[in-house]
Write a structure and sequence with these properties.
Layout (H helix, E strand, L loop, with lengths): L8 H7 L2 H7 L8 E7 H6 L1 H14 L4 E7 L4 H10 L6 E5 L3 H6 L21 H4 L3 E2 L2 E2 L1 E7 L1 E6 H6 L9 H14 L7 E4 L5 H10 L5 E4 L2 E4 L4 H17 L14 H6 L3 E7 L14 E4 L12 E2 L1 E6 L7 H11 L2 H9 L14 H6 L2 E2 L7 H6 L2 H11 L4 H16 L3
């Protein structure tokens, strides 16, 4: 779900094959053993789903065992690159949806197009998530689960301010937040809405809400689009919202330092914008008064489009157990397992499984990053974060910052 640095194979060789040995443990080369890499989220959040998949797979494949190895988002790509360099990859790997393109374009994953019908609910996969596993019309990644961004808020403060129900427009929400801010002005460090200014996953919601986008293609070349009329309108609306309700001190901060839910748990925020699972971490003191609703659009009655983060599962091209890997993925993403993931606060991978949770409603309108080989370099180059900091600090006008960012994005995406 999170974008990480793709380490070149040459660098992986330079680092040595120790990482490969530690990561893959030669699992796929052992007879009747399937090696699966999942993120630690599954280990701590839904071990029962993993166990159910393993049990189903082993019942269908007598004599086989599944070796699940849990990875960390911070270094799993570096380790995977090392296994590719050492010809020792796992058989199945979980990838964040923004991580897929660089590997699909390099041929690191097996083509699963002919096996699509084996995966449950594949005709109903979430469009925004399924797109991340497609490249040039072929399927390389199977949607696993997703997460939307919603508003997590203090119901007690909103009630005290005379706000009886969630807002239905961005204008109304801004007005509500101003009421909360006025009421709590005596609390040092309090902000009605805590937002990290350079959190582009959230900020670009405004761009897409006004009909803008990040980049488009023309004549087989990428063209930056953040300086379009619609995108500039969205960025301007974001700046206006931030200036009205968020702390100026957060203008150049990212979403990790501090995490929005940490500020919330300290009693210093009336509302925060982020993944729905933020509700888990708002603090014992505020647990009973933590509520959520879908962030409203500037168009009354509609939700704002949100970044649809998520994970896919793929089969590395070097796996010697591709048929078994496909079978395990089918078991792992079964209807029962996807429903279990939904019960744990995630979004299942198919529209026919969606419930009426705030998370699911938020997923109804979503956006995704350009599917370009070098998108990873856009993120790692902090092009979007720099643009937002320039806008919120007034260093550049919205148009100036957006034009610079668009030019840099186009240059980066068009690299050979």
């Amino acid at each position: 779900m999170r974008l990480r640095v793709v380490v070149a194979a040459a660098l992986a060789v330079a680092l040595g094959v120790m990482a490969a040995s530690a990561g893959a443990s030669n699992g796929h080369k052992q007879a009747n053993k399937l090696t699966v890499w999942l993120q630690v989220d599954a280990q701590s959040g839904w071990p029962d789903v993993v166990a159910a998949a393993n049990q189903a797979f082993q019942a269908q494949n007598p004599g086989w065992t599944v070796n699940v190895q849990y990875q960390n988002w911070g270094d799993h790509l570096q380790k995977f690159d090392a296994t590719i360099a050492g010809n020792d990859t796992p058989d199945v790997i979980e990838m964040g949806n923004t991580e897929m393109t660089a590997y699909m374009t390099s041929g690191a994953f097996a083509d699963l197009t002919a096996s699509k019908s084996q995966f449950p609910n594949s005709d109903h996969w979430l469009a925004g998530l399924a797109k991340s596993g497609l490249y040039q019309g072929k399927l390389y990644g199977v949607p696993y689960y997703a997460g939307s961004r919603v508003i997590t808020y203090r119901t007690d403060l909103f009630k005290k301010a005379g706000i009886a129900k969630p807002p239905t427009s961005l204008t109304q929400f801004t007005s509500d937040l101003k009421k909360v801010a006025k009421m709590e002005k005596g609390v040092k460090g309090f902000s009605a809405m805590y937002m990290a200014g350079t959190d582009w996953y959230s900020a670009l919601d405004w761009v897409f809400d006004y009909g803008g986008t990040i980049a488009t293609t023309h004549a087989h070349k990428w063209v930056g689009a953040l300086n379009s009329k619609q995108s500039i309108a969205g960025l301007t609306a974001y700046k206006n919202f931030f200036d009205a309700v968020a702390p100026k001190s957060a203008a150049t901060l990212d979403e990790a330092n501090p995490a929005p839910y940490t500020v919330f748990s300290q009693g210093l925020a009336g509302a925060i914008l982020g993944p729905a699972w933020f509700s888990c971490c708002t603090g014992t003191k505020y647990k009973a008064v933590t509520g959520q609703f879908v962030m409203p659009s500037h168009v009354a009655g509609k939700p704002i489009p949100g970044f649809l983060g998520g994970s896919d599962v793929a089969v590395p091209a070097e796996s010697g157990n591709k048929a078994q890997a496909i079978q395990w993925i089918a078991d792992f993403t079964s209807t029962a397992n996807e429903q279990s993931l939904q019960n744990k606060g995630n979004i299942p991978n198919a529209t026919n499984l969606l419930g009426n949770t705030v998370n699911a409603r938020a997923a109804a309108q979503s956006w995704f990053v350009p599917q370009a080989k070098h998108w990873v370099d856009v993120e790692n180059g902090n092009i979007l974060r720099t643009m937002l900091a320039q806008i919120l600090t007034g260093k550049l006008s919205v148009k100036q910052a957006a034009t610079t960012a668009s030019d840099n994005i186009a240059y980066t995406l068009n690299q050979s």
